[in-house]
Specification:
Layout (H helix, E strand, L loop, with lengths): L1 H22 L4 E4 L2 E5 L8 E5 L6 H12 L6 E6 L4 H9 L3 E2 L4 E5 L13 E4 L4 H15 L3 H7 L2 H5 L3 E8 L2 E11 L2 E9 L8 H15 L4 E5 L5 H7 L2 E11 L4
Parallel strand pairs: 3-4, 10-11
Antiparallel strand pairs: 1-2, 2-3, 4-12, 5-12, 6-11, 6-12, 7-8, 8-9, 9-10
Helix pairs in contact: 2-3, 4-5
Length: about 260
C-alpha cells in the first residue's frame, strides 16, 4: 500500500502543480509520465518537471524538460521521488542541473475519524468568496514570508472555483488564523498550503486545518491523503498517522554552464 501511496502522491503533486500553472496562464505539457508546468514566477519552486514513473530514455526525458522550460526564462525544479527513476536523476546531473534538496512525501491511508478542532477554533470549508481568498493568501504570506502578489498568483478566485480544489480557513473570534488547501486527483486528497499566522502557531491550529482539508477530500470521495512536509512538520504528521513515502529529490535548472 505504501508503494501505491507513493505513486499516488507523485500523480497528485503533478496534477496540482499543472492546475495552478494553467489557471495562472502558464504553459503546461505532459510527455508520458513527465508533467511540465510553468507559473512564470521567478522562483524555482513554482516551476517544475514532475516525474511519476520510470522512463525508457532518461536523457531524452531530461532534454524534453530543459527544452520546454527554456523559453520561460525562469528557474525550475525537476522532482523525482527517491526510487522512482534514479537514472533520470543521473541524466539531469550530467546535463548540468544542480541538487537543491527536496521535501519528504507522506501519506495517510485509510482516512480515520477526524478529530474535533481545538476549543474556540471555527473552521469554514470550501470558501469561494474574494474576502476568504484574500484571507488565505494573507496567511500564506505571513506564515511563509511570501510576497502577497505571489500568493495571489498561486491562489485566486479561479483556483478555488476549480472543482478539484477546496480551501479551508480557521477563525478565532472572527479572525482568520490558519488555513489549508486540498486538491483532489482520483481518490487522492493532496494537502497543501497549511499556514498559520505566526502569533497563533503552536496551538494545534495547523493540525486542525490539515484534518479539515483531509475531511474535505474525503467528502469528495477520497480514501487517502498525501502531503509534502518540512523537517519540522514530520513529527506532527507522524502523530496524525501519516507515513513516510520517500523524499523528493529536487534538481534545479536551467543547466549550469
Amino acid at each position: 500500500m505504501i508503494e501505491d501511496l507513493g505513486w499516488l502522491a507523485d500523480v497528485n503533486l503533478a496534477h496540482t502543480s499543472a492546475l495552478v500553472a494553467r489557471l495562472g496562464g502558464g504553459p503546461v505539457e505532459q510527455f508520458g509520465p513527465l508533467q511540465l508546468a510553468v507559473t512564470g514566477i521567478p522562483v524555482a519552486f513554482f516551476n517544475g518537471a514532475y516525474l511519476t514513473a520510470p522512463v525508457e530514455d532518461p536523457d531524452g526525458c531530461v532534454r524534453q524538460a530543459i527544452e520546454f522550460m527554456a523559453p520561460a526564462g525562469v528557474p525550475w525544479l525537476l522532482w523525482v521521488r527517491e526510487g522512482v527513476d534514479d537514472a533520470v536523476l543521473d541524466a539531469a546531473r550530467r546535463a548540468g542541473l544542480r541538487d537543491a534538496g527536496g521535501p519528504p512525501a507522506m501519506g495517510l491511508a485509510p482516512i480515520p475519524s477526524i478529530p474535533t478542532p481545538p476549543t474556540g477554533l471555527e473552521i469554514t470549508a470550501v470558501v469561494t468568496d474574494a474576502a476568504s481568498v484574500d484571507a488565505h493568501c494573507e496567511l500564506l504570506s505571513r506564515a511563509f514570508e511570501m510576497p502577497a502578489e505571489i500568493a495571489h498568483h498561486l491562489v485566486n478566485e479561479q483556483t478555488v472555483a476549480d472543482p478539484t480544489v477546496g480551501v479551508v480557513i480557521g477563525h478565532v473570534g472572527g479572525e482568520p488564523v490558519s488555513t489549508a488547501l486540498v486538491c483532489v486527483s482520483g481518490s487522492t486528497a493532496g494537502v497543501y498550503n497549511v499556514a498559520t499566522a505566526p502569533e497563533h502557531q503552536r496551538k494545534s491550529y495547523g493540525t486542525a486545518l490539515t484534518w479539515a482539508a483531509v475531511a474535505e477530500g474525503q467528502r469528495r470521495g477520497c480514501n487517502h491523503a498525501i502531503l509534502q512536509t518540512s523537517p519540522a512538520g514530520q513529527t506532527v504528521y507522524e502523530a496524525m498517522g501519516f507515513v513516510h513515502l520517500g523524499r523528493y529529490v529536487q534538481l534545479e535548472g536551467p543547466p549550469g554552464t
